[in-house]
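Chain A, query sequence.
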Amino acid sequence: MLIPRQKVPDLNLPTLSHGTFDLANDGSERGTVICFYRGLHCPICANYLTELEKRTSEFAERGVKTIAISSDGEDRTREMAEKINATDLRFAYDLSLSKAREWGLYISTSRGKTSIGIEEPALFAEPGLFMITPDQSLYYGSVQTMPFVRPHFSELVGALDFAIANDYPARGEYTGEV
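Chain A, predicted structure.
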């Protein structure tokens, strides 16, 4: 389990057009929003990433970079980026399932073709959304067992405004006895 205010696992992945993504050296003023998505086969992911693409400039205005990551290979990732007409959102690919587990993501097995006629991979990671600080510690995290009911990016932008204005710390950091 990832703990707020503690270092998250390293992430080094190839991207479609931004070289290698290295979380430890992402170089943002306030952090990075990492959106782990299921893959090209997921129509809900396409809608969700379309919204993130639209909000990427709002995150950038607040000193936050964005990236979408899946276990899909380069070709399927490129198809997803083209499908949502991505221009600002970075896409990384080839996330190993062992790395997905380090991040606390759930792993699912294929159920064949999805409603849009695309075959699911044999195994793939379910969604997760994280805000990571420049020192690579967890600020915000949400993981899901299903593709449904995801956090809204507009709310995350608003929460960032509040956190910045009030120097609001990450919460949920207590790990002692209860």
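Residues 31 and 134 are 5 Å apart (CA to CA). The chain has one domain: 12-166.
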